UniProtKB/TrEMBL annotation:
Organism in which the protein naturally occurs: Occultella aeris
Protein name as catalogued: DUF1345 domain-containing protein
Record keywords: Membrane, Transmembrane, Transmembrane helix
Matching Pfam families: DUF1345 (PF07077)
Keyword Translocase: no
Membrane spanning stretches: 20-38, 44-71, 115-136, 142-163, 220-241
Keyword Nucleotidyltransferase (UniProt): no
Amino acid sequence: MSRDPAAIPKLTSDIRRSVVCLIPGLVLVVVLGPVIFAEPIEDSLVSAVGAGMLGWSCFAAIYCALTVWAFRGLRGERFRRSLIEAESTEPRAVRRILRVPGARTMLTGGDGPSWAVQVALVALAAALLLSVNSQVRSDPALLLVGVATVVTSWFTVLVSYALHYARAQTRDAGLRFPGEEPDGLADYLYFATSVSTTFATSDITVETARMRRLVTGHGLLAFAFNTVIVAIVVAILVGTLI
């Protein structure tokens, strides 16, 4: 059977991508976690947290790569349809679950504000664990996993907000791009990268109050992420290596 060129790719669904990414993350936690974080770590809680961070780092890295891959080649109207209609391709049971309060926040990776805040909290917890626990700082595996958690979380915030900007623009507009109109995910990744790295909107104009609130929240989160979390990790690395 030939594939419909206008069909929405299944992996544009946030839930499907999250489930696909969750599987290798759980495998790492269950299979490799006890091996990597067994000895000489004496604190079982630290070992469990290390295994959890390993799984999260795997999940976040695959999620970012899979999101970019899922939307590759989608342009114009097909890209906009995939942003709005992907959820309608889910089984009816899944759509019922999404109506439960809080379920969408926990399951849907593309919901920028809620999902990105959760990601930032995970990274903050990892950074705090690195800073206060001497076992973590002295164990190369834990130190590496902690840094990987912060780095992959930063990219997940960026990708989540890029998707959220794209959905908000598709539904209600609010951003004005110079020259050609945005045509795919790359345009929104460009915008999200500008906000995450410079706390500015670059050459893109924000035109609505709703979009200004969204950009403000992203900028504040990025500022906290960059100045607090990254600063903690850099200080720990410098202190460990010297």
